[in-house]
Amino acid sequence: MISPNVAWHKYLNSSNPIINKYLNNFGDELLQQTFQRLILAIKSKKSHIILFRFKDSDIISKIYQKDYIPALELLLNLCIRLEKYEMCRDIHTQLKLIKLKKARGNPSKRKVTTVHNT
Known about the structure:
The protein is mainly alpha-helical. 53% of the residues lie in helices and 9% in strands. The protein starts with 16 loop residues before the first helix and ends in a 13-residue tail after the last helix.
């Protein structure tokens, strides 16, 4: 039974020296999986996903749709801090595409002009 949920923020916090040391030594796969999970969740329009599942434990870290982009931004900052520049590029590119699609799909951001014929 999976029930306890821990905050995902602290695992993407670039100012946490313990996590930074671990990720710097062993984290490439974890960072890549986290990135892929978030992108897939955004594209699939999932209301929430399990971002982290802790081995040999019932503890998970769930994230909701409203936090996907902030999580990607934190992941980008973390990758910059860890000097994982190739992944930084990939995250930055995806963030740009997501924000561009959101801006194009949001009618309130479009300029509407009305022409009056008299």
